[in-house]
Amino acid sequence: MIFRIKAFILNLIEKIGNCASAPEDSVQLRINKKLICILAFLVTISGALWGVMYLLLGFYLPTVFPFLYSLIIGIALFQFRKNKNYEKFVKIQLGMMLLLPFSLQWSLGGFSQSGVVMVWAILAPFGSLIFQDNKKAITIFITYIFLIFLSVFQDIYFPGPDIPIEIKILFFITNISVVSILSFFAMLYFVNVSKKEYTREAVLAQQKEIIESQKRLTASYA
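^ thats the sequence. predicted structure below, dont judge the formating
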């Protein structure tokens, strides 16, 4: 039973990772597409779960943001599968990952009330380092820092209503632990897939060289 579940999960991850691949993609682009598709899928699922959690706890306005994220990224992922427009999908994904966590935190009333939910936004500059270039990553990171200071201002001058300590602890644990888990396993997957793809490319290049050598050898005897 466990092996079947594991096989199902691995197969699902592989299908999601390859959903936007094209034959003409370079090795690096193929790797990037796999990672961003899987990351988008996982964060979309997380957004839906967070929305349900806020709904059950009675936080109706904050519920809008994670559900909105899941809806937009879900549609964008479906479109990405069809049009293969990598740059557009990356911009949508990183933009939503940067802005939605801060919007959610402000709607909940601040750092403490939200369990520092803005920590999800750190995935945006990290993602930009992988999927874009250093210049864009630095711009996104500066924006991230600016939004942190803006959140401090909001926390001081526009504090939200107090929330029971038990719920605050729940928010802190879920936000920090899930972001940490996603970050670690995304990097682990990126490293493993990179090794696999580059090894595959090297083997194909070696096989091509052997075939070319055999052709030249055959031609020399003709």
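The chain has one domain: 25-196.
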